[in-house]
Amino acid sequence: MDPAELLALDAEHVWHPYAPMPGQSAPLLVTEASGVRLRLADGRELIDGMSSWWAAIHGYRHPVLDAALAAQAGRMSHVMFGGLTHEPAVRLAVTLTELAPAGLEHVFLCDSGSVSVEVAVKMCLQYWASSGRTAKRRLLTWRGGYHGDTFHPMSVCDPEGGMHSLWRGVLPEQVFVPEPPSGFTDPPDQSYVDTLAAAIERHADELAAVIVEPVAQGAGGMRFHHPGYLSVLRELTEAHDVLLIFDEIATGFGRTGEMFAAGHAGVTPDVLCLGKALTGGYLSMAATLCTPRVAAGISRGELPVLAHGPTFMGNPLAAAVANASIGLLLERDWRAEVGRIEAGLRAGLAPAARLDGVTDVRVLGAIGVIQLDHPVDMAEATRVATGLGVWLRPFRDLIYAMPPYVCTDSDITAIAEAMVAAAGSS
Q1: Which residues carry this modification: N6-(pyridoxal phosphate)lysine (predicted)?
Q2: Active-site residue, 276 included
Q3: Which member of 133, 152, 318, 371 has the greatest number of CB atoms within 10 A?
Q4: Does 241 appear as a known binding residue?
Protein backbone atom coordinates (compact mmCIF):
# COMPACT_ATOMS: atom_id res chain seq x y z
CA MET A 1 0.00 0.00 0.00
CA ASP A 2 1.23 3.50 -0.79
CA PRO A 3 2.79 5.20 2.30
CA ALA A 4 0.61 8.28 1.91
CA GLU A 5 -2.50 6.10 1.78
CA LEU A 6 -1.38 4.14 4.83
CA LEU A 7 -0.81 7.29 6.85
CA ALA A 8 -4.19 8.68 5.78
CA LEU A 9 -5.91 5.48 6.92
CA ASP A 10 -3.89 5.52 10.12
CA ALA A 11 -5.05 9.05 10.87
CA GLU A 12 -8.65 8.08 10.23
CA HIS A 13 -8.84 4.80 12.12
CA VAL A 14 -5.83 4.04 14.37
CA TRP A 15 -5.77 5.28 17.95
CA HIS A 16 -2.14 5.47 19.11
CA PRO A 17 -1.02 5.29 22.76
CA TYR A 18 -1.20 8.48 24.81
CA ALA A 19 -2.54 10.39 21.81
CA PRO A 20 -5.85 12.05 20.92
CA MET A 21 -8.21 10.68 18.30
CA PRO A 22 -7.95 11.90 15.63
CA GLY A 23 -4.22 12.37 16.02
CA GLN A 24 -2.55 15.76 15.89
CA SER A 25 0.71 14.64 14.31
CA ALA A 26 1.55 11.90 11.84
CA PRO A 27 3.59 8.97 13.19
CA LEU A 28 6.68 7.81 11.35
CA LEU A 29 5.90 4.85 9.08
CA VAL A 30 8.25 1.91 9.73
CA THR A 31 8.58 -0.65 6.95
CA GLU A 32 11.13 -3.00 8.50
CA ALA A 33 13.65 -3.29 11.32
CA SER A 34 16.97 -5.07 11.58
CA GLY A 35 19.70 -5.05 14.17
CA VAL A 36 19.16 -1.82 16.10
CA ARG A 37 17.79 0.14 13.16
CA LEU A 38 14.31 1.04 12.02
CA ARG A 39 13.80 1.62 8.30
CA LEU A 40 11.20 4.23 7.43
CA ALA A 41 9.00 4.39 4.36
CA ASP A 42 10.94 7.44 3.13
CA GLY A 43 14.17 5.42 3.11
CA ARG A 44 15.71 6.82 6.30
CA GLU A 45 17.19 4.55 8.95
CA LEU A 46 17.00 5.38 12.66
CA ILE A 47 18.93 3.80 15.52
CA ASP A 48 16.29 2.72 18.03
CA GLY A 49 17.37 4.32 21.30
CA MET A 50 14.22 3.05 23.00
CA SER A 51 14.46 -0.73 22.42
CA SER A 52 10.79 -0.53 21.42
CA TRP A 53 9.74 0.71 24.85
CA TRP A 54 12.60 -1.12 26.59
CA ALA A 55 11.81 -4.60 25.30
CA ALA A 56 13.98 -5.33 22.23
CA ILE A 57 17.24 -5.89 24.11
CA HIS A 58 18.70 -8.02 21.29
CA GLY A 59 17.54 -5.70 18.52
CA TYR A 60 15.39 -6.82 15.58
CA ARG A 61 15.35 -9.87 13.30
CA HIS A 62 17.83 -11.72 15.47
CA PRO A 63 18.37 -15.09 13.76
CA VAL A 64 18.19 -17.06 17.02
CA LEU A 65 14.86 -15.53 18.02
CA ASP A 66 13.46 -15.74 14.50
CA ALA A 67 14.36 -19.44 14.39
CA ALA A 68 12.77 -20.15 17.78
CA LEU A 69 9.55 -18.46 16.70
CA ALA A 70 9.41 -20.28 13.37
CA ALA A 71 10.19 -23.67 14.93
CA GLN A 72 7.46 -23.28 17.53
CA ALA A 73 4.94 -22.11 14.92
CA GLY A 74 5.65 -25.34 13.08
CA ARG A 75 4.54 -27.32 16.13
CA MET A 76 1.70 -25.26 17.65
CA SER A 77 1.06 -21.56 17.95
CA HIS A 78 -1.31 -21.74 20.89
CA VAL A 79 -3.15 -24.10 23.18
CA MET A 80 -5.26 -23.22 26.19
CA PHE A 81 -3.38 -23.42 29.51
CA GLY A 82 -6.35 -24.59 31.58
CA GLY A 83 -5.89 -28.32 32.08
CA LEU A 84 -3.08 -28.48 29.50
CA THR A 85 0.61 -27.65 29.56
CA HIS A 86 3.57 -27.71 27.17
CA GLU A 87 7.35 -27.73 27.16
CA PRO A 88 8.05 -24.04 26.28
CA ALA A 89 6.01 -22.78 29.24
CA VAL A 90 7.44 -25.34 31.68
CA ARG A 91 11.01 -24.58 30.59
CA LEU A 92 10.39 -20.86 30.91
CA ALA A 93 8.93 -21.15 34.41
CA VAL A 94 11.89 -23.25 35.57
CA THR A 95 14.40 -20.82 34.06
CA LEU A 96 12.73 -17.82 35.71
CA THR A 97 12.80 -19.46 39.13
CA GLU A 98 16.50 -20.25 38.63
CA LEU A 99 17.34 -16.66 37.66
CA ALA A 100 15.07 -14.82 40.09
CA PRO A 101 15.97 -13.97 43.68
CA ALA A 102 16.07 -17.09 45.83
CA GLY A 103 12.71 -18.23 47.16
CA LEU A 104 10.51 -17.18 44.23
CA GLU A 105 9.43 -20.66 43.16
CA HIS A 106 6.05 -20.29 41.46
CA VAL A 107 5.35 -18.58 38.13
CA PHE A 108 2.07 -17.27 36.71
CA LEU A 109 2.44 -16.47 33.00
CA CYS A 110 0.25 -13.65 31.72
CA ASP A 111 -0.13 -11.22 28.85
CA SER A 112 1.47 -7.86 29.64
CA GLY A 113 3.21 -5.81 32.30
CA SER A 114 0.04 -4.20 33.57
CA VAL A 115 -1.62 -7.59 33.86
CA SER A 116 1.35 -8.99 35.76
CA VAL A 117 0.88 -6.18 38.32
CA GLU A 118 -2.86 -6.91 38.43
CA VAL A 119 -2.03 -10.56 39.13
CA ALA A 120 0.50 -9.58 41.81
CA VAL A 121 -2.04 -7.40 43.58
CA LYS A 122 -4.69 -10.11 43.28
CA MET A 123 -2.26 -12.63 44.78
CA CYS A 124 -1.70 -10.40 47.79
CA LEU A 125 -5.36 -9.50 48.28
CA GLN A 126 -6.42 -13.13 47.96
CA TYR A 127 -3.65 -14.26 50.33
CA TRP A 128 -4.99 -12.07 53.11
CA ALA A 129 -8.62 -12.89 52.33
CA SER A 130 -7.73 -16.58 52.55
CA SER A 131 -6.13 -15.88 55.93
CA GLY A 132 -9.34 -14.26 57.18
CA ARG A 133 -7.74 -10.81 57.35
CA THR A 134 -10.02 -9.06 54.89
CA ALA A 135 -9.18 -5.58 56.19
CA LYS A 136 -5.72 -5.90 54.60
CA ARG A 137 -6.63 -4.70 51.12
CA ARG A 138 -4.71 -1.45 50.56
CA LEU A 139 -1.31 -0.96 48.96
CA LEU A 140 1.53 1.34 49.97
CA THR A 141 4.01 2.78 47.53
CA TRP A 142 6.25 5.77 47.08
CA ARG A 143 5.55 8.65 44.73
CA GLY A 144 7.22 8.87 41.35
CA GLY A 145 6.22 5.34 40.43
CA TYR A 146 4.53 3.85 37.39
CA HIS A 147 3.01 0.37 37.30
CA GLY A 148 0.74 0.26 34.25
CA ASP A 149 -2.50 1.46 32.75
CA THR A 150 -5.09 -1.01 34.02
CA PHE A 151 -7.04 -0.14 37.13
CA HIS A 152 -5.18 -1.50 40.14
CA PRO A 153 -1.79 -0.61 38.63
CA MET A 154 -3.07 2.91 37.95
CA SER A 155 -3.98 3.26 41.61
CA VAL A 156 -0.33 2.93 42.65
CA CYS A 157 1.09 5.20 39.94
CA ASP A 158 2.13 8.66 41.08
CA PRO A 159 -1.18 10.42 41.89
CA GLU A 160 0.04 13.87 40.83
CA GLY A 161 2.77 13.47 38.23
CA GLY A 162 1.30 10.38 36.60
CA MET A 163 -1.23 10.12 33.80
CA HIS A 164 -4.06 8.80 35.92
CA SER A 165 -5.30 11.71 38.02
CA LEU A 166 -8.47 11.65 35.89
CA TRP A 167 -9.49 8.50 37.75
CA ARG A 168 -9.29 9.93 41.26
CA GLY A 169 -12.41 8.82 43.11
CA VAL A 170 -12.82 5.79 40.85
CA LEU A 171 -9.58 3.97 41.64
CA PRO A 172 -8.92 2.40 45.05
CA GLU A 173 -7.26 4.94 47.35
CA GLN A 174 -3.81 3.71 48.25
CA VAL A 175 -1.19 4.89 50.74
CA PHE A 176 1.59 7.07 49.32
CA VAL A 177 4.85 8.16 50.92
CA PRO A 178 7.25 10.71 49.37
CA GLU A 179 9.45 9.56 46.51
CA PRO A 180 12.75 8.00 47.60
CA PRO A 181 15.76 10.32 47.67
CA SER A 182 17.57 10.38 44.34
CA GLY A 183 21.00 8.91 43.83
CA PHE A 184 22.00 5.31 43.26
CA THR A 185 25.25 5.76 45.15
CA ASP A 186 23.97 8.07 47.89
CA PRO A 187 23.52 6.08 51.13
CA PRO A 188 19.99 5.79 52.56
CA ASP A 189 18.71 8.88 54.32
CA GLN A 190 17.68 8.04 57.87
CA SER A 191 14.88 10.58 57.96
CA TYR A 192 13.36 8.97 54.88
CA VAL A 193 13.78 5.52 56.40
CA ASP A 194 11.90 6.82 59.44
CA THR A 195 9.12 8.07 57.13
CA LEU A 196 8.79 4.64 55.55
CA ALA A 197 8.78 2.95 58.94
CA ALA A 198 6.13 5.26 60.36
CA ALA A 199 3.81 4.85 57.36
CA ILE A 200 4.06 1.06 57.24
CA GLU A 201 3.57 0.76 61.00
CA ARG A 202 0.59 3.15 60.98
CA HIS A 203 -1.20 1.33 58.15
CA ALA A 204 -0.02 -2.25 58.78
CA ASP A 205 -3.45 -3.58 59.72
CA GLU A 206 -4.92 -2.45 56.39
CA LEU A 207 -1.94 -3.05 54.10
CA ALA A 208 -1.94 -6.08 51.83
CA ALA A 209 1.40 -5.17 50.28
CA VAL A 210 4.03 -2.57 49.53
CA ILE A 211 4.77 -2.26 45.81
CA VAL A 212 7.75 -0.42 44.31
CA GLU A 213 10.00 -0.37 41.26
CA PRO A 214 13.39 -1.35 42.67
CA VAL A 215 16.40 0.93 42.09
CA ALA A 216 15.05 2.63 38.94
CA GLN A 217 11.61 4.19 38.60
CA GLY A 218 10.46 4.11 34.98
CA ALA A 219 7.73 6.11 33.30
CA GLY A 220 6.94 7.94 36.54
CA GLY A 221 10.14 9.96 36.27
CA MET A 222 13.21 7.85 35.37
CA ARG A 223 14.72 8.36 38.84
CA PHE A 224 17.34 6.15 40.52
CA HIS A 225 17.58 5.41 44.24
CA HIS A 226 19.97 3.57 46.54
CA PRO A 227 19.43 -0.22 46.80
CA GLY A 228 19.50 0.11 50.57
CA TYR A 229 15.90 1.27 50.54
CA LEU A 230 14.91 -2.17 49.24
CA SER A 231 16.52 -3.81 52.27
CA VAL A 232 14.70 -1.36 54.51
CA LEU A 233 11.37 -2.22 52.87
CA ARG A 234 12.04 -5.94 53.25
CA GLU A 235 12.78 -5.56 56.95
CA LEU A 236 9.77 -3.32 57.59
CA THR A 237 7.28 -5.46 55.69
CA GLU A 238 8.44 -8.60 57.48
CA ALA A 239 8.25 -6.86 60.85
CA HIS A 240 4.69 -5.66 60.24
CA ASP A 241 3.29 -8.70 58.39
CA VAL A 242 2.91 -6.98 55.02
CA LEU A 243 3.77 -8.53 51.66
CA LEU A 244 6.35 -6.95 49.33
CA ILE A 245 5.99 -6.66 45.54
CA PHE A 246 8.84 -5.63 43.25
CA ASP A 247 7.77 -4.41 39.82
CA GLU A 248 10.73 -5.27 37.57
CA ILE A 249 8.88 -4.98 34.27
CA ALA A 250 11.30 -2.24 33.14
CA THR A 251 14.39 -3.21 35.14
CA GLY A 252 14.48 -6.98 34.65
CA PHE A 253 16.94 -8.89 32.46
CA GLY A 254 20.01 -6.76 33.02
CA ARG A 255 18.85 -3.22 32.36
CA THR A 256 20.35 -1.76 35.57
CA GLY A 257 23.51 -3.89 35.54
CA GLU A 258 22.09 -6.80 37.57
CA MET A 259 19.90 -9.53 36.10
CA PHE A 260 17.14 -8.14 38.32
CA ALA A 261 17.37 -4.83 40.15
CA ALA A 262 16.62 -6.61 43.44
CA GLY A 263 20.08 -8.13 43.05
CA HIS A 264 21.68 -4.79 43.89
CA ALA A 265 20.36 -5.27 47.43
CA GLY A 266 20.31 -9.07 47.64
CA VAL A 267 16.63 -8.91 48.59
CA THR A 268 13.81 -11.33 47.75
CA PRO A 269 10.29 -9.89 47.54
CA ASP A 270 7.19 -11.98 48.12
CA VAL A 271 6.03 -11.27 44.56
CA LEU A 272 8.00 -10.24 41.46
CA CYS A 273 6.57 -8.79 38.23
CA LEU A 274 8.41 -9.27 34.91
CA GLY A 275 7.63 -8.27 31.32
CA LYS A 276 9.00 -6.14 28.46
CA ALA A 277 12.40 -7.76 27.74
CA LEU A 278 11.08 -11.21 28.71
CA THR A 279 10.57 -12.15 25.03
CA GLY A 280 13.25 -9.86 23.62
CA GLY A 281 10.51 -7.59 22.30
CA TYR A 282 9.03 -10.20 19.96
CA LEU A 283 5.66 -10.96 21.56
CA SER A 284 3.66 -9.73 24.52
CA MET A 285 4.21 -11.86 27.59
CA ALA A 286 4.71 -11.20 31.29
CA ALA A 287 5.22 -13.24 34.43
CA THR A 288 4.33 -12.90 38.10
CA LEU A 289 6.50 -14.93 40.46
CA CYS A 290 5.73 -15.61 44.11
CA THR A 291 7.03 -17.48 47.13
CA PRO A 292 5.57 -20.75 48.43
CA ARG A 293 4.17 -18.79 51.38
CA VAL A 294 1.95 -16.74 49.09
CA ALA A 295 0.82 -19.71 47.00
CA ALA A 296 0.09 -21.87 50.05
CA GLY A 297 -1.83 -19.06 51.71
CA ILE A 298 -4.12 -18.69 48.70
CA SER A 299 -4.59 -22.46 48.50
CA ARG A 300 -5.87 -22.56 52.10
CA GLY A 301 -8.70 -20.15 51.39
CA GLU A 302 -12.39 -20.64 50.74
CA LEU A 303 -11.52 -20.12 47.06
CA PRO A 304 -8.34 -22.22 46.89
CA VAL A 305 -7.27 -21.12 43.39
CA LEU A 306 -5.83 -17.88 42.07
CA ALA A 307 -8.86 -16.28 40.45
CA HIS A 308 -7.20 -15.33 37.18
CA GLY A 309 -6.86 -17.04 33.79
CA PRO A 310 -5.94 -15.13 30.62
CA THR A 311 -6.94 -16.73 27.32
CA PHE A 312 -3.39 -16.55 26.00
CA MET A 313 -1.74 -17.54 29.27
CA GLY A 314 1.48 -19.47 28.62
CA ASN A 315 1.24 -18.91 24.87
CA PRO A 316 3.71 -21.37 23.28
CA LEU A 317 5.03 -18.91 20.69
CA ALA A 318 5.76 -16.29 23.34
CA ALA A 319 7.22 -18.85 25.74
CA ALA A 320 9.48 -20.32 23.05
CA VAL A 321 10.88 -16.95 22.05
CA ALA A 322 11.27 -15.98 25.72
CA ASN A 323 13.35 -19.12 26.29
CA ALA A 324 15.48 -18.22 23.28
CA SER A 325 15.84 -14.60 24.39
CA ILE A 326 16.95 -15.54 27.90
CA GLY A 327 19.32 -18.15 26.47
CA LEU A 328 20.82 -15.55 24.15
CA LEU A 329 21.29 -13.16 27.05
CA LEU A 330 23.01 -15.77 29.20
CA GLU A 331 25.28 -16.92 26.36
CA ARG A 332 26.71 -13.43 25.95
CA ASP A 333 28.60 -11.34 28.47
CA TRP A 334 25.55 -9.16 29.08
CA ARG A 335 27.13 -7.49 32.10
CA ALA A 336 29.99 -6.26 29.93
CA GLU A 337 27.52 -5.11 27.26
CA VAL A 338 25.48 -3.12 29.75
CA GLY A 339 28.64 -1.75 31.38
CA ARG A 340 29.96 -0.64 28.00
CA ILE A 341 26.66 1.13 27.23
CA GLU A 342 26.73 2.78 30.66
CA ALA A 343 30.24 4.11 30.05
CA GLY A 344 29.29 5.35 26.58
CA LEU A 345 26.19 7.13 27.84
CA ARG A 346 28.10 8.77 30.70
CA ALA A 347 30.69 10.13 28.33
CA GLY A 348 28.25 11.08 25.60
CA LEU A 349 25.70 12.79 27.84
CA ALA A 350 28.22 14.77 29.90
CA PRO A 351 27.98 17.88 27.64
CA ALA A 352 24.25 18.12 28.40
CA ALA A 353 25.02 19.22 31.95
CA ARG A 354 26.25 22.55 30.55
CA LEU A 355 23.07 23.30 28.59
CA ASP A 356 20.62 25.94 29.73
CA GLY A 357 17.47 24.39 31.13
CA VAL A 358 19.07 21.06 32.06
CA THR A 359 18.64 20.20 35.74
CA ASP A 360 20.18 16.73 35.83
CA VAL A 361 21.99 14.15 33.75
CA ARG A 362 21.98 10.61 35.11
CA VAL A 363 22.98 7.16 33.92
CA LEU A 364 22.51 3.70 35.42
CA GLY A 365 23.28 0.56 33.46
CA ALA A 366 21.76 0.86 30.00
CA ILE A 367 19.57 3.83 30.98
CA GLY A 368 20.50 7.42 30.19
CA VAL A 369 18.43 10.45 31.23
CA ILE A 370 18.55 14.20 30.63
CA GLN A 371 16.07 16.11 32.80
CA LEU A 372 14.97 19.63 31.91
CA ASP A 373 13.42 22.38 34.01
CA HIS A 374 10.50 22.58 31.57
CA PRO A 375 8.41 20.22 29.43
CA VAL A 376 10.10 18.82 26.35
CA ASP A 377 8.98 20.22 23.00
CA MET A 378 8.13 16.77 21.65
CA ALA A 379 7.80 17.75 18.00
CA GLU A 380 11.07 19.68 17.94
CA ALA A 381 13.01 17.13 19.97
CA THR A 382 11.81 14.34 17.68
CA ARG A 383 12.70 16.36 14.56
CA VAL A 384 16.21 17.01 15.85
CA ALA A 385 16.85 13.42 16.96
CA THR A 386 15.54 11.84 13.76
CA GLY A 387 17.57 14.36 11.77
CA LEU A 388 20.60 12.83 13.46
CA GLY A 389 19.42 9.31 12.65
CA VAL A 390 18.10 8.33 16.09
CA TRP A 391 14.65 7.42 17.38
CA LEU A 392 13.84 8.78 20.84
CA ARG A 393 10.52 9.19 22.62
CA PRO A 394 10.81 11.94 25.27
CA PHE A 395 8.06 12.57 27.77
CA ARG A 396 7.24 15.30 30.28
CA ASP A 397 10.58 16.97 31.15
CA LEU A 398 12.74 13.99 30.22
CA ILE A 399 14.84 13.00 27.23
CA TYR A 400 16.05 9.47 27.82
CA ALA A 401 17.30 6.32 26.14
CA MET A 402 17.22 2.60 26.91
CA PRO A 403 19.22 1.18 24.00
CA PRO A 404 19.36 -2.47 22.89
CA TYR A 405 22.30 -4.26 24.48
CA VAL A 406 23.73 -5.10 21.04
CA CYS A 407 24.37 -1.46 20.15
CA THR A 408 27.92 -0.73 19.07
CA ASP A 409 30.01 2.02 20.62
CA SER A 410 29.30 4.21 17.60
CA ASP A 411 25.56 3.56 18.00
CA ILE A 412 25.72 4.70 21.65
CA THR A 413 27.71 7.77 20.66
CA ALA A 414 25.05 8.65 18.08
CA ILE A 415 22.22 8.11 20.59
CA ALA A 416 23.92 10.32 23.18
CA GLU A 417 24.61 13.06 20.61
CA ALA A 418 20.98 13.02 19.54
CA MET A 419 19.83 13.26 23.16
CA VAL A 420 22.08 16.24 23.83
CA ALA A 421 20.95 17.94 20.64
CA ALA A 422 17.29 17.28 21.46
CA ALA A 423 17.79 18.76 24.92
CA GLY A 424 19.41 21.84 23.41
CA SER A 425 16.49 22.30 21.04
CA SER A 426 13.85 22.01 23.76
Answers
A1: 276
A2: yes
A3: 318
A4: no
